[in-house]
From TrEMBL:
GO MF term set: hydro-lyase activity; metal ion binding
Native organism: Saliphagus infecundisoli
Coiled coil regions, renumbered to chain: none
InterPro entries according to UniProt: Enolase-like_C_sf (IPR036849), Enolase-like_N (IPR029017), Enolase_C-like (IPR029065), Mandel_Rmase/mucon_lact_enz_CS (IPR018110), Mandelate_racemase_C (IPR013342), Mandelate_racemase_N_dom (IPR013341), RHMD-like (IPR046945)
Domain Mandelate racemase/muconate lactonizing enzyme C-terminal: 146-239
Protein name (record): Mandelate racemase/muconate lactonizing enzyme family protein
PROSITE patterns linked to this entry: MR_MLE_2 (PS00909)
Needed cofactors: Mg(2+)
Keyword Magnesium on entry: yes
């Protein structure tokens, strides 16, 4: 089996209303799907979490010649080769994002070729469901009741949620208190500061919200501020999480070595499933948790679900006190809701892990065409 075509497909969508985090608002969402086809007629899908023009140029300049003619079963050499060839470019985010797309698409092809879901190919046990958490309570440009998005998540059956904070201690506490009151005492609650604080600010906020039993604080300081993570960790008891803005095993190794308690690789940016598996092994070795970050299309979501289902439960030998959770963004995103023949359904507090071969999804190519940024 050889890859015969490599096709990047830029997607974009303009939101009906501004959506934001502590750093600001935006109205546009964009990503790039990757479609690989083989000489046997199989099609594999991946995602590069970068704008289409950047993905297309990177593929054409650095990867197209090597990928066309490649056996998908050689996939695990791709991430390692990307660090050395092209020299000095391998750790760049655009390179690793494209590597992610190619890697995931190759695993999709392998699974379809051998008739197995990706999570089993990665060494995972047979996993039927995961726990989804609602990623919600975004900042908005227009006024809305603070409780509204959490109430909606509860109505959908979510038993866990992550909310946006990071704009000041008093407002942070109000948002967390509101979410906890609505979710109830038994639900899992996480917060995301989106790197908007200096360490001392994050510490003040972290201490103020500690009474609300927060599972983790995500990106309390900017992703490049490694010493800031270490400072916050020394003074806040709540677990720290990061990884959505990091890529490749080397950056994650620095996070794992004492900066955070949980790493969050994004499967459309970190280097793909092969690199995510390496990151998970590094994390497990140091007893650091792994929870994938997901703010992608349905293809990136499928990759993250398959990866999450493969992560070992170490050190839990029987009942895990902290079950594997996967992020489920509750904002407007037709790139997630409309491009699959059977969309993912997180309602009821469970998310089914596809058991069909490869990523276990069937992409609606007509729907993809409607969302193309270059149409």
């Amino acid at each position: 089996m050889e890859i015969t075509t490599i096709e990047p497909i830029p997607l974009a969508h303009t939101l009906s209303a501004g959506l934001g985090d502590a750093r600001g608002f935006g109205r546009d969402r964009a990503t790039t799907l990757l479609r690989l086809e083989t000489d046997t007629g199989l099609v594999g899908w991946g995602e590069a979490f970068v704008p289409g023009s950047i993905a297309e140029a990177t593929i054409e300049e650095l990867f197209a010649e090597d990928v066309v003619g490649m056996d998908p079963f050689d996939v695990e050499s791709l991430a390692e080769r990307s660090y050395t060839d092209p020299y000095h470019f391998g750790e760049a985010v655009f390179v690793q994002s494209v590597v992610s797309a190619i890697d995931v698409a190759c695993w999709d092809l392998i699974g379809k070729e051998v008739g197995r879901p990706v999570h089993r190919l990665l060494g995972g046990r047979s996993v039927e469901t995961l726990v989804p958490y609602a990623s919600t309570m975004y900042f908005t440009e227009t006024e809305r009741p603070l409780a509204e998005p959490i109430e909606a998540a509860v109505d959908e059956g979510f038993t866990a949620a992550k909310i946006k904070i990071g704009t000041g201690v008093e407002e942070d506490e109000e948002r967390v208190r509101t979410a906890r009151d609505i979710l109830g005492p038994d639900a899992r609650l996480m917060v995301d500061m989106n790197g908007n604080y200096r360490p001392e600010q994050a510490v003040r906020s972290g201490r103020a919200i500690a009474e609300y039993d927060v599972e983790w604080i995500e990106e309390p300081v900017p992703p490049e501020n490694l010493s800031g993570y270490e400072e916050v960790k020394r003074h806040v008891e709540t677990a720290l999480a990061a990884g959505e803005a990091h890529y490749g095993r080397f950056e994650f190794k620095r996070l794992i070595d004492g900066a955070v308690d949980i790493v969050q690789p994004n499967l459309a940016r970190c280097g793909g499933l092969s690199e995510a598996r390496t990151i998970a092994k590094l994390a497990t070795t140091e007893n650091v948790g792994v929870r994938p970050h997901i703010w992608n299309s349905a293809v990136g979501l499928a990759a993250a679900v398959q990866f999450a289902a493969s992560v070992p439960a170490y050190p839990h030998s029987r009942t895990a006190p902290d079950p594997m959770m996967v992020e489920f963004d509750r904002s407007e995103n037709p790139m997630r809701t409309e491009i699959l023949e059977t969309p993912f359904d997180p309602s009821g507090g469970e998310l089914a892990v596809p058991q069909e071969p490869g990523l276990g999804i069937e992409v609606d190519e007509d729907a993809v065409a409607e969302l193309r940024a270059d149409r």
